[in-house]
Amino acid sequence: MAISFTVDATDPGSRARTGELVTARGVVKTPAFMPVGTRATVTGMTVGDLEELGADIVLGNTYHLTLRPGLEVLRSAGGIHRFMGWTGPVLTDSGGFQIFSMSGDRRVTEDGARFKSYVDASEQRLSPERSIEAQAVIGSDIAMVLDVCVESTSGPAEILQAMERTHRWALRSLSARTPDQALFAIVQGGLDPVLRRASVDFLTAHPFDGFAIGGLAVGDTRSERAGIVAEVAPLLPPKAPRYLMGVGTPPDLLEGILHGIDMFDCVLPTTMAWQGTAFTSCGRVKITRGAHRGSDAPLDPACGCTTCRRHSRGYLHHLMKCGEPLGPRLLTFHNLHHYLDLMRSARSAIEAGTYTSFAREKLDAIDRHEHGERRGG
Q: Hey, which bits of 217-362 come out as E strands?
């Protein structure tokens, strides 16, 4: 196998667990958050930043990398690791979510998807086999099957059709895989527990290296997501890594870990930073608000990252208001530190057997703060 996975500790009050995902390029301690490096870069961060932050693994995107820089460039460079200078493991998404995001500008059939490149308007084709071929050229350690993603609130017939096509595409992906690359399947089924169980039953009957829960955070609420994760995660094989795709507010992560999820990714830490929002120990802080102008307080007194140790809220406010690139870069560094530190703290709590109370305290603190923020405008 291209990877191995072992569970090291479990929390007595929940399904939370720690483990080690071993790849040829390094060990990923789980639960793990994967910074999103869509185009072979985590926006605003250098590889040195990621190493300083303690990231074990990053995520790249097949759809975007295929269009730019293109597979020939990546092949010539020797793959994404040499291209971006990252020596640790990489997981690549298959492009399914990006196809879904194009809505009116793509055509999906049983064969695959056809769409126009946003780079040069050329017609592109992405099939299960083509996605696997592209991920092999990219050289990721973990590849994802191409799936059909629809709004989680879509009608029953559309969700069933998407799930069944995802299953057929998963088997085609499995047939096309390369032996030195791990392959994860993706459970679909919208918000229907019956369909989700059927998807788990179908996919776990085949030799995938790990299993992801997809199709969430696309129209559903936090409580709906939590309900599906609570339903699906315990059904997945206990000896395989479990990955919750694209779902990534801190409450989502805390609740996912509670139900036994091992891996997460989300663009929120980076995109929100560039919009002036930081994730802190007690909730979100919109640093561009006038209340932070001239403030000497650190962004998060409980955080030990470089941003919080060296810079005040007033300085960060100034940078964002001036449009200085350093502002979102410092916020991105802090946000990723916050997410990765949350994973470290969660692992420690699981090992101590106290994760349930740890998660509840964190969730209560975030909810209190963010409710007050909304009420106060």
A: 242-244, 263-265, 277-280, 283-286
- HSE-CB at 30 with a 13 A cutoff on CA atoms is 29
Catalytic residues: 93, 265
Do residues 313 and 358 both lie within one domain?
yes
Mean pLDDT, the chain, as a whole number? Answer: 95
**Within a 10 A sphere around the Cβ of 263, how many other Cβ atoms?**
26
Same domain for 215 and 278, yes or no, is: no
CA-closest candidate to residue 31, choices 279, 250, 334, 278: 250
Range of the domain at 139: 4-266
For residue 160, the model assigns a pLDDT of 98
* Domain shared by 78 and 167, yes or no: yes
Amino acid, single-letter form, for residue 253: L
239 shares its domain with 279: no
Q: Which two tokens stand for residue 290?
A: 């006038």
- The predicted-structure confidence for 152-178, as pLDDT tens digits, reads as follows 889 999 999 999 999 999 999 999 999
- Look up residue 200 and give its two tokens: 């788990």
